[in-house]
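Throughout our pipeline, every protein is held as a single compact record rather than as scattered files. Nothing more is needed to write down the fold, since each code stands for a local backbone conformation. The record that follows is passed on verbatim for readers who wish to inspect the format.
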Amino acid sequence: MHNAFFGNFDLASLSIWLFWAFFALLIYYIQRENMREGYPLEDDDGATSANQGPFPVPEDKTFILPHGRGELSLPSGQKPERADIALRKTAAGNGSPFEPTGNPMTDGVGPASWVERRDSPELDSKGHAKIVPLSKAEAFFVSAGSDPRGMPVVSGDKKVVGTVTDLWIDEPEALVRYIEYDLGDGAGTRLVPITMARIWFGKVMVQSIYADQFAGVPRNSSDSQITLLEEEKICAYYGGGYLYASEHRQEPQL
């Protein structure tokens, strides 16, 4: 027994130390993988931040995108940040509030801000556009609740601004994502997210914006699909209305 291999060595201690070493390397690897988007860090003015954190930015990794959409190498291949943001600092120090310099609803700042996402539709596992008009999806129909098609659309200032013409559905999820309505007088159709509309007593109420702002709702370029970038801009416009639709909404509520 005196000559047994590892006879005087603590195998339990070795095991726990190997586990801690593996765990530390795992955390290091996961943290670097998490830095493939959004890095290197920038300060409020868009310049590269002096403090990038304790972990180095990872080397490029090339991803093959599905459905023939090419390749993407990250972190170097990420989209540049928006450079046309109409904001100015209210003070010189980092972390100081910014204020809009133009029309925040159309400039896409604050609650109305949007991200430069891919200008192509989100696809399902078969490579088809996920979100399509109900009128073009023959296998789908309204099976429960109120069908809003034909109902008037009422703005936040209680004015009728259009009529619902269609619903846009997420086919894989079998959910309504947008309500399409016609503004009339040749102004064309617009989409409103179903979560920002309320179907109530035979009308569709959109509280976030007022009647004169519906014509400014961003439009999707196709009548059969919507891109990720278009979704960003449409949702941001309605969301920003909760603060920017009028000066009254920007005042303290208490």
